[in-house]
Amino acid sequence: xxxxxxxxxxxxxxxxxxxxxxxxxxxxxxxxxxxxxxxxxxxxxxxxxxxxxxxxxxxxxxxxxxxxxxxxxxxxxxxxxxxxxxxxxxxxxxxxxxxxxxxxxxxxxxxxxxxxxxxxxxxxxxxxxxxxxxxxxxxxxxxxxxxxxxxxxxxxxxxxxxxxxxxxxxxxxxxxxxxxxxxxx
Length: 185
Known about the structure:
By secondary structure, the chain is of the alpha+beta class. Helix content is 17%, strand content 41%. The chain has helices spanning 62-74, 126-129, 170-184, and strands at 12-21, 31-37, 48-49, 52-54, 81-86, 90-91, 96-105, 118-125, 136-142, 145-157, 163-169.
């Protein structure tokens, strides 16, 4: 899904890692690792997102940018990540041209979230995210324009029984929907 930009700034290239975490015991189903951004950030604060960000001049490729950002944001070491490939560039309404880098994450990794950027790191089962019955389509009028976006709400049960709603929406949900389309093609 492409959005018409609602920002006047020039488009900026970005890369995100779609980290598919393989079952730790070798028996379960894979999960997708996601972050919740801190609320004090100037851009996309409080949103559910993939690890990622702007491409630096020193990044040799989009995969390198996504891996660097995953290391900086959540401490995911590249040695545990096998890049599978990229999805088509996703243009956001905030004028980012995002390259989603799909990768498998092997057992043995440890995370070290950057508290300045990330308020939490969690996983959602891949089969839940790839089930189209969990994908919601929204339409809203905003500043005289019709805006359309996707969401994938997920209720997570934390240790101790507490339930937390993880509301995946916007670009992150759109990229997951694109991954779903590629997997079923």
